[in-house]
Amino acid sequence: MNKKEIANKMSKDAGISFIQAEKAFNSMIEGIKNSLNKGERVTFSGFGSFEVKKRKARTGRNPKTGEVISIPKKKRVKFNPSKSFKDSL
């Protein structure tokens, strides 16, 4: 399911236009991004939560050459599904 299909389903389920559903969906995505950029956790009851995790800098190996390389620190987004969501699959 892609963004357009989600907005289409939202418009049908809520009885609103596709444009309104698309704006609402885009607003929700921007809200999630902004909260994660601030370091906040985003939780949807019955679905799961998103949070930013920091990965430390480390050394690794180039699998092709075997050369040792340094991997810089970075942030990543982690999703933890809720128990009810996992049980529904």
Word description of this protein:
The chain has helices spanning 3-14, 18-37, 83-88; strands at 42-44, 48-55, 58-61, 68-71, 74-81. The protein is an alpha+beta fold and 89 residues long. The protein has 2 domains: 1-40; 48-89, HU Protein, Chain A (Irregular), CATH 4.10.520.10. The strands form 2 sheets. A 3-stranded antiparallel β-sheet has the order 1-2-5. The chain has a two-stranded antiparallel ribbon with strand order 3-4. Helix 1 (3-14) crosses helix 2. The chain is elongated, with a radius of gyration of 19 Å. The two termini are 16 Å apart.
Radius of gyration: 19 Å
- Annotation field: number of helices: 3
CATH architecture of the largest domain: Irregular
Order of helices and strands: HHEEEEEH
How would you characterize the largest beta sheet? 3 strands, antiparallel
β-strand number:
5
Q: Compute the average pLDDT.
A: 94
Whole-Å distance between the termini?
16 Å
**Largest sheet: spatial strand order:** 1-2-5
CATH superfamily of the largest domain: IHF-like DNA-binding proteins
CATH fold assignment of the largest domain: HU Protein, Chain A
Low-confidence stretches: none
Helical residues, percent: 40-55%
User: What shape does the CA trace take?
Assistant: elongated
CATH class of the largest domain: Few Secondary Structures
User: Any idea how many domains?
Assistant: 2
Structural class by sheet pairing and helices: alpha+beta
